[in-house]
Write a structure and sequence with these properties.
about 260 residues, mainly beta, Methylamine Dehydrogenase, Chain H, 24 strands, signal, Glutamine cyclotransferase
């Protein structure tokens, strides 16, 4: 009976698995690949400069005084979030990469030492407070922050988020939180170094191998591309983008039939 149950469970997982098909490849000279927005514009960084190229035109943003760009969040292309860890600063850009607003966590009435900052919508940012080792939601319009998590053990090595959820990866744990401050799931981190997400789909990187992570399973992804080093990733509804440092690979995603 147990054997039959196991077979049925395995078959059901195979039936709902996503599949990835090789698509286009494009040369990209960049320090890091950020992503492609819904309007097919490509974002990347090169020599302290953020670039946007595509149907909307070619645009750049740079402020050398802020240092190296740590991360760029393009979940809302009309309000791009650029984070500089060296200077503890976030810059919000419009769709032409013109500066809209600047948030210096050093100059707030209550200083916050931040290692990550991503868009949470409604004038909020998901931030990780280094001093308290806690995930927080910061509303930059009314200068109010809400603690989301208990203090983390270990260093935060990757964060991915959208307007509803934040996925954090530390040396020891992989956790999922919602905007209400609830811890939805917690797993041991067995060597993963990066996580990307789209809605509730999560893909993590471990030793140049990608895995799909669900509440119950961790499944390796068989990629139809050569085994080049995976440097940067982006996951969307229809595509998985892999940048190996020279070439941007586009993989189309076939969603499981319901």
């Amino acid at each position: 009976m147990k054997s039959i149950y196991f077979i049925l469970l395995l078959v059901s997982q195979l039936c709902v698995a996503q599949t990835f098909e090789k698509g286009s490849e494009a040369l990209l000279i960049a320090d890091s690949f950020v992503g492609i927005d819904p309007y097919n514009n490509t974002y990347y960084t090169k020599d302290f400069v953020l670039h946007k190229e595509g149907p909307d035109g070619s645009f750049v943003f740079n402020d050398l005084q802020l240092g190296t760009i740590t991360s760029v969040d393009i979940i809302n292309p009309l309000k791009v979030v650029v984070f500089y860890e060296d200077t503890n600063t976030v810059v919000l850009l419009d769709n032409k990469l013109s500066e809209m607003e600047r948030i210096s966590f050093n100059n707030l009435p209550e200083f916050i030492n931040v290692s990550t900052a991503t868009n949470a919508g409604n004038n909020r940012l998901w931030i990780f407070n280094i001093d308290t080792q806690q995930l927080e939601l910061y509303n930059y319009r009314d200068n109010r922050k809400t603690t989301v998590s208990q203090p983390f053990e270990g260093k935060l090595i990757s964060q991915a988020s959208n307007f509803n959820y934040c996925f954090t990866l530390t040396e020891f744990k992989f956790r999922t939180f919602n905007v209400y401050g609830s811890l939805l799931s917690e797993k041991d981190n067995n060597g993963f170094t990066k996580v990307v997400q789209h809605n509730e789909t999560r893909i993590a990187l471990k030793e140049n191998q990608l895995y799909t992570i669900t509440e119950d399973t961790i499944t390796p992804i068989k990629l139809p591309v050569s085994e080049n080093t995976i440097k940067d990733l982006q996951l969307t509804q229809d595509f998985l983008y892999i940048y190996d440092g020279k070439t941007l690979h586009t993989l189309s995603i076939t969603q499981p039939k319901k």
